[in-house]
UniProtKB/TrEMBL annotation:
The lineage of its organism: Bacteria, Bacillati, Actinomycetota, Actinomycetes, Propionibacteriales. It holds the Pfam family GCS2. The keyword ATP-binding applies. It comes from Microlunatus elymi. This is Putative glutamate--cysteine ligase 2. Belongs to the glutamate--cysteine ligase type 2 family. YbdK subfamily. GO terms for molecular function: ATP binding; glutamate-cysteine ligase activity.
C-alpha cells in the first residue's frame, strides 16, 4: 500500500494547538499518590480574585478535577506559537506544584504511579455512575495522558484528518512512553497506561469513517447501545472534540519533560496539516485494518523506542529509529511550513539520546534507586523551566 502525501504550502496562518495534561499528586516525602485534588482546586479557586499574591494562577488555560483524587488536569489555551505553548505548560506544572506543596504533596508528570496506590474516585455523580457501570476498570484507572487539540476548519475536515492519521499514532505513543511501573512492579511495558486505558470499550484506533455524517452516526449508534454513559465516553485515539473546533489526539502518555510534550504537540499539528493537504487534492484516506493498528499500538506500548515498531504502511517490524524517521519524513513539509522542524528534530534526538520517561524511570531503578528515591529524583524534572 502506498503512502504518498502532499506537503502543505508555507503559510503564516498556523493552526492553533492546545494541550491537556493529567498530573499525579504524590506525597512530598514518600512519593505515594495522595488524594488532595480537592484541596488544590479550592486553593486555585481562591487564587482567582487575588492573583497578585503567590501562588499566582497562570493567566491562560484552566485547572480541573479528573477521575481520581490523586490527579489533577491542567489545560493550556490555544496557541499558534509553540514557545507560548511551552510557557503555559511549564507555568501550569509549576503553579500546581506550588498548590500541592501546601498539602505536603508534589505534582509528578508520570503516566502511572511507580508506587502502589489505592485510587480514590472524585465525588461526582458522573464518576459514581462510571464506577457502577465499569467497576474495577474505573476504580483502578489512575493514569495520566497528554491530549493535544489541533484546530480544524470544520467537522468534515476533522474527520478527514481522523481517517488519515491513524497509522502514525503508535509512533507518538512510543515517543511519549512514560508508564513502565504499575502498583510497585515493572509492568514489562513502556506505556502500561495504554494497557489500562484500553479496558474502556471505545478506546483505541478506528476504521475510516469517510465523512462527518458517518462519524456522527457511528457515535450516536455507540451511545444508543447503552454501554457508554454519554458521548464524552468516545475514547478513540483521535476524535472530534465535542467542545472545541478541534481534533483531539489522545494516545500519548503525559511526558516527564514539558519539552517532550511540546514536541508531541508539534507532530500532532503537522499530522493535521499533512492530512488536510491530502484532503485538499482529493487523495483518499488509507484503508488500514483496525486490528493491525491495534497491534502496532500494542508494540509501541510494549517496547517504546528501544525495540521494534511496526512499519505504518506494511505493518512489519522495523527498528524504532526507522519508523520515527518515516514519521518525520511524512510531516517534514508541514513542520517546515510551521517553523517547527528544528524543534521536533532536536526533540527526537533528545529522546533517543537521553531516553523517554519510561527509560529514565527504569534506568534510575537499574542504578540502584528504590522507587521512592526514583520519584524524588525525577520530581523536579516534571516542573523544570
Amino acid at each position: 500500500m502506498s503512502d504518498h502525501t502532499t506537503s502543505p504550502a508555507a503559510t503564516t496562518e498556523r493552526r492553533t494547538v492546545g494541550v491537556e495534561e493529567e498530573l499525579l499528586l504524590v506525597d512530598a516525602d514518600s512519593g505515594v499518590p495522595r488524594a488532595v485534588a480537592g484541596n488544590l482546586l479550592r486553593r486555585a479557586e481562591a487564587d482567582r480574585p487575588r492573583r497578585d499574591e503567590p501562588p499566582r494562577a497562570p493567566d491562560d488555560g484552566e485547572i480541573e478535577a479528573e477521575l481520581q483524587q490523586q490527579q489533577i488536569e491542567v489545560e493550556t489555551s490555544p496557541c499558534a506559537d509553540l514557545s507560548e505553548l511551552r510557557r503555559q505548560l511549564v507555568e501550569w506544572r509549576q503553579y500546581t506544584d506550588q498548590l500541592a506543596r501546601k498539602s505536603d504533596a508534589r505534582v509528578l508528570a508520570m503516566a502511572t504511579s511507580p508506587l502502589p496506590v489505592d485510587p480514590r474516585t472524585m465525588v461526582k455523580p458522573r464518576y459514581r455512575r462510571m464506577v457502577e457501570r465499569y467497576g474495577l476498570t474505573t476504580m483502578e484507572q489512575l493514569t495520566c495522558g497528554c491530549h493535544v487539540h489541533v484546530s480544524v476548519a470544520d467537522d468534515e475536515e476533522g474527520v478527514g484528518v481522523v481517517d488519515r492519521v491513524q497509522r502514525r499514532l503508535p509512533a507518538l505513543l512510543a515517543l511519549s512512553a512514560n508508564s513502565p511501573f504499575w502498583q510497585g512492579r515493572d509492568s514489562g511495558y513502556s506505556s502500561y497506561r495504554t494497557q489500562v486505558w484500553s479496558r474502556f470499550p471505545t478506546a483505541g484506533p478506528t476504521a475510516p469513517f469517510g465523512s462527518a455524517a458517518a462519524y456522527h452516526e457511528r457515535v450516536e449508534r455507540l451511545v444508543r447501545t447503552g454501554v457508554l454513559l454519554d458521548p464524552d465516553m468516545i475514547y478513540f485515539n483521535v476524535r472530534l472534540s465535542r467542545h472545541y473546533p478541534t481534533v483531539e489526539f489522545r494516545i500519548a502518555d503525559i511526558c516527564l519533560r514539558a519539552d517532550d510534550a511540546v514536541m508531541i504537540a508539534a507532530l500532532a499539528r503537522a499530522l493535521v496539516d499533512t492530512a488536510a493537504a491530502d484532503i485538499a487534492v482529493g487523495r483518499s484516506a488509507p484503508s488500514d485494518d483496525p486490528q493491525l493498528l491495534l497491534l502496532a499500538q500494542w508494540r509501541a506500548s510494549r517496547d517504546g523506542l528501544r525495540g521494534g515498531l511496526l512499519d505504518p504502511v506494511d505493518a512489519v517490524p522495523q527498528p524504532a529509529a526507522e519508523v520515527i524517521e518515516t514519521l518525520l519524513d511524512h510531516v517534514r513539509g508541514a513542520l517546515t511550513a510551521n517553523g517547527d522542524l528544528e524543534l521536533v528534530q532536536q526533540g527526537i534526538d533528545r529522546v533517543f539520546e537521553n531516553g523517554t520517561g519510561a527509560e529514565l524511570q527504569r534506568r534510575a531503578v537499574r542504578d540502584g534507586a528504590e522507587p521512592v528515591e526514583m520519584v524524588r529524583a525525577l520530581l523536579d524534572t516534571s516542573i523544570a523551566d
